[in-house]
Structure formats: C-alpha cells, structure tokens
C-alpha cells in the first residue's frame, strides 16, 4: 500500500521508533500505520489536522477507502441507510448474534488523526489477522464504521449509532439545520441517502451479542501511569445546551453604557459561570463552552444576539442533571439582571453508561494474556459505545494519548501502543466470538 505524499510524514513518525516485535499472530504494525496515514490524507488541513465532518464528502471518501480494505480482508461489505458501514466475517454459527467492533472516521474541524479512526482500523486489523492466520470465529464478526459521531455538522452527534439502535426522533431530526444552513434531509440526499432509508437503519439489539470499541484516551491517566492501554469501566453522558441571549443591537459610539442591552456581555458572564459551576456539584463533572456565534458581528455594533453551545458531562446521571439545571438557572438569572432575553434548547442528552462487570473481566483477561498489566478507568468523553451500551453488552479499550491532547492536529498515540491495543482487542474478541 502506498502512502500519499501529503501524509507521508505521519507514516514516518509512526514507524520511526516502532518495535517490530509486536508484529505477530497476524497483526502488522506497518499495515496499521499505512492505513492511518492514508486516511489522514483525506480532509488534511494546512495545519496537518483532519477535517472530515459528518455527512461530508470527506467522511464519505474515508468510508469508501475502509470499504476497500474490508473487501481486501475478505469481509462482506454493506452500508445501511444512515451511512453506517459494516464488514462481516461469517462464523461457524451463521445465525448467531454478531460480535461487533469499530468506531467512526468523521472528525471535528481541524481535529486529529487517531480519534475514531484508530478504533475502526484496530477492528479491521483483527479481522485481517484472523483471515491471514486462518482463524474462523464461532459467532459472526462485524467491523463497523459509524456515521457522524462527533456531531460537528448538526451540533448533535452519535448519529449513526443512534440511528442503528432506533433512538432517532424523525420530527426532531428533520428540523435540524447544519452549520451551512442546509436541512438534514438535503444533506442526506447530497450523499445519496433518503430519510426513509435513514430511519430503516434501525437494528434489532437481539442481533448483536456484544460491541467493543477501541479509542484513544483523550486524557493523561494512562500516560502518567505508564500504561499503554486501559479498560473503561463507565462512560460519561454528555448533555448539550444551546443558549441564546437576545438583547438590542445598537451603535457602539452613540449608545451610552447604561442604556445598553448587550447580548455578548451577558453571554460572557454566563461563560464564566459555566466554568465555575461543575466543581460545586461533582468532582467528576465538567462544563465547556466551545462555540459562540455573535450577531450581527460588526466591529462598531453592540451585539444584539449571541448563541453559545454548552457541553456538560459527568459519569453519574444525577449530578450531571443537577449541573444542567444549575447552568440553565444561571443563564436565566443573568438574563434578568441584564434585561435581555434568553432561550435554551437541549440538543443532546445521553445517559451515562456503566460497563458490565463481565465485559470488564474479559478485558482484564485479554490484557493479562498479552503480557500487560490491567488499569481500569472511566471515560469522560461520549462514544458510540455509550449508545450501544444501553442495549447490548459493551466494552471499551483506551489507548494512551500523548499529553492527553485530542480534537487537535497535535493528537498522538505511539504505534507501539496502538498495536498493543490491537492484540488486546484480538484476545478480547476471541473470547466473545467463541
């Protein structure tokens, strides 16, 4: 496989200090590095980041490339109406529930090259290793690529996995507009899908025996502890709020300070409140304002309308919901104090998901089988695994992230650690498909 010139730097950095002793049992580190680099070339930004937002042509191109690799690995490839891609390896018991593994290939704007992508390629590497060594699973095995996990396009997220598990409200979905002002239906049709096909993507949970997702940690716990991989024991559920302050636009020079209804000043005070509230409610809660839209946006115009997005997370539902209530109360209080209006809309609310003890025990056994020490930790980030985890036995494996950097071109995981994770995943899946 040739590495595109524009992303060859990624392949060279991955391979620079790679220990080829990790190449065994059908697992090949150079193949994984090459595929990471080939996907990195799709949507590559000037800052050497990744720009493949959900339902974009770039996400579609990445899926098509993965489809090609699935076929090369001897998998039967299909795509559902939500754009989720599946590569199936039949087992001895063809009618048995399927064991699945995978993640996503979409990214945030100017994101990194490991988030999601590593989970897809790790699952595919296991299938390739099984094919190369002649291993035939008992249960069927599917590598899955979920659509629009990040939610950068519609300020939502987990779209493909929610569609597969029947969690989509059609009326709400059709009301969505993307960041370019396009309707959800138009966006679907632009990549060759229809609303009817999208809703038909729902799958019976009884068809799925288990799901395992490999993902970079996006934190520093593993790096600081010196562990290449970790076992997730629970996934925090994100709640997203869209908060709009509505004041009065006016001339920046002719409107006295005491006569202003400045929406941006209100939003600024609110943003500081979001920063301070989580620690008052829970030691594991976090809150982030990651997006701010100012209207009309003129240098010499008092902002009349400001919309901010708030991302609230905790591994416990009760305290996460208390935080959401406190944030909304803060917005309303600030609006009253500043004589502006406020509108609050919840755009995402996902339940925190504990990982079943039986799945954790299988993961621990897999880690120990490949000669590593197990470390169990929670996930503060949302993943497709948290959607499936409400319906089927689900597990997650974290890979060490350098300095915990993610959603950023500097995102990095060493190839040695990535390949170790593949070996753990392979042993874990072999228990599940037996």
Polypeptide structure, described:
This protein is α/β, with parallel strands linked by helices and about 425 residues long. It has two domains: about 325 residues, 3-Layer(aba) Sandwich (Aminopeptidase); about 110 residues, Alpha-Beta Plaits. The chain is about 35% helix and about 20% strand. The chain has 15 helices and 15 strands. Strands 1, 2, 3, 4, 5, 6, 13, 14 and 15 form a nine-stranded mixed sheet that branches. Strands 9-11-7-12 form a four-stranded antiparallel sheet, covered by helices on one side. Helix 4 links the parallel strand 3 and strand 4. Helix 2 runs antiparallel to helix 4, helix 4 packs across helix 15 and helix 10 runs antiparallel to helix 12. It is globular and about 75 Å long. The model has no long low-confidence stretch (mean pLDDT about 95).
CATH superfamily of the largest domain: Zn peptidases
Structural class: alpha/beta
Number of helices: 15
Report low-confidence residues grouped into runs of 5 or more: none
- Helix-strand sequence: HHHEEEHEHHHHEHEEEHHEEEHEEHEHEH
- Strand coverage percent: 15-25%
End-to-end span in angstroms?
A: 32 Å
CATH topology of the largest domain: Aminopeptidase
Indicate how many domains the architecture comprises. 2
Please identify the top-level CATH class of the largest domain: Alpha Beta
The number of strands is: 15
- Using the alpha-carbon principal axes, give the shape: globular
């Amino acid at each position: 496989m040739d590495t595109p010139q524009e992303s060859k730097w990624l392949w060279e950095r991955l391979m620079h200090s790679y220990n080829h002793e990790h190449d065994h049992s059908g697992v090949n580190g150079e193949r994984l590095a090459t595929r990471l680099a080939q996907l990195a070339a799709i949507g590559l930004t000037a800052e050497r980041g990744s720009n493949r937002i959900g339902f974009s042509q770039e996400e579609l191109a990445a899926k098509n490339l993965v489809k090609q690799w699935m076929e090369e690995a001897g998998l039967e490839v299909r795509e559902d109406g939500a754009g989720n891609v599946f590569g199936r390896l039949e087992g001895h018991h063809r009618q048995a529930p399927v064991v699945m593994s995978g993640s996503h290939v979409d990214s945030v704007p100017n994101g990194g090259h490991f988030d999601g992508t590593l989970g897809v390629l790790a699952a595919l590497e296991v299938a390739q290793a099984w094919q190369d060594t002649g291993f035939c699973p008992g249960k069927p095995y599917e590598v899955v690529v979920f659509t629009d996990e990040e939610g950068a396009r519609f300020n939502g997220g987990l779209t493909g996995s929610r569609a597969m598990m029947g969690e989509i409200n059609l009326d709400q979905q059709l009301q969505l507009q993307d960041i370019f002002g396009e309707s959800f239906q138009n966006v679907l049709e632009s990549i060759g899908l229809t609303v009817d096909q999208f809703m038909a993507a729902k799958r019976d949970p009884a068809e799925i025996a288990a799901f395992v997702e490999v993902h970079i940690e996006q934190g520093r716990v593993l790096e600081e502890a010196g562990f290449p991989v970790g076992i997730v024991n629970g996934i925090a559920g994100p709640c997203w709020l869209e908060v709009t302050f509505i004041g009065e636009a006016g001339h920046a020079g002719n409107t006295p300070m005491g006569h202003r209804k400045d929406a941006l000043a209100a939003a600024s005070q609110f943003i500081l409140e979001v920063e301070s509230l989580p620690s008052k409610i829970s030691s594991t809660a976090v809150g982030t304002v990651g997006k701010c839209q100012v209207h009309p946006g003129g240098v010499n115009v008092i902002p009349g309308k400001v919309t901010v997005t708030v991302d609230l997370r905790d591994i416990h539902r009760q305290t996460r919901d208390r935080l959401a209530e406190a944030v909304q109360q803060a917005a309303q209080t600030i609006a009253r104090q500043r004589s502006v209006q406020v509108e609050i809309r919840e755009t995402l609310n996902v339940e925190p998901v504990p990982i079943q003890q039986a799945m954790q025990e299988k993961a621990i056994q897999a880690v120990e089988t490949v000669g590593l020490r197990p470390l169990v930790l929670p996930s503060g980030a949302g993943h497709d695994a948290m959607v499936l985890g409400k319906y089927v036995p689900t597990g997650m494996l974290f890979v060490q992230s350098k300095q915990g950097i993610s959603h950023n071109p500097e995102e990095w995981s060493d190839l040695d650690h990535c390949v170790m994770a593949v070996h753990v995943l392979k042993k874990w899946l072999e228990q599940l498909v037996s």
